[in-house]
Amino acid sequence: MQQQAGEFGIDDAKRVLGDVFAPWVQDLNLAIEQFDIAPPAGGDADWQPGAILRMPFSERLCRNGGIVCGQALMAFADTAMVLANLAANKGYRPMTTVDQTTHFMRAVTASDVLADARVVRLGRTMSFGRVTLLSATDNKPVAMVSSAFAMLPG
């Protein structure tokens, strides 16, 4: 995706990631790998705005047995969904999580984790989305997350 002058893009999203989130979320060292604000040329009927983020593996995120803990994965999914909302809104908008449901599918060990976050529906006051968490080692799903966000007055 190329960014035109004055258009909100990946560099702006990276600034929000560094400026808006709590220090402990920043300590996760998340990286934005893809930021999708517009459908690809030629169109795609299934396209949804969103972002792909990476959470690097760290022993500090593991529980007993070297498994990345669910709390870290849930915080990662929530943060990724905020970034997906930035893409859908084409800019920063204050918001708060209303609901998040996580279905853990398998453990992830000794691997970065990818979050593919997509906005399924963006309304005036609410946003609904989904995040697929994947092990970067084999690209297999480790969790599915659905969420709802309230869009706040700016």
Features:
alpha+beta, 154 residues, six-stranded antiparallel sheet, 37% strand
Describe the structure.
It contains 3 helices and 8 strands. By secondary structure, the protein is α+β, with helices and mostly antiparallel strands. The strands form 2 sheets. It has a 6-stranded antiparallel beta sheet, with helices on one face. The relative contact order is 0.19.
Compact summary:
This protein has 154 residues and is of the alpha+beta class. The chain has 3 helices and 8 strands.
Number of strands: 8
- H/E topology pattern: HHEEEEHEEEE
* Average pLDDT taken over every residue: 94
Q: Can you count the helices?
A: 3
Strand order of the largest sheet: 1-2-6-7-8-5
Estimated structural class: alpha+beta
**Any idea what the shape is?**
globular
Tell me the β content. 35-45%
Helix content: 10-25%
Could you give the distance between the termini?
27 Å
Largest sheet: 6 strands, antiparallel
Low-pLDDT windows of residues: 1-5
Radius of gyration: 15 Å
Oligomer: single chain
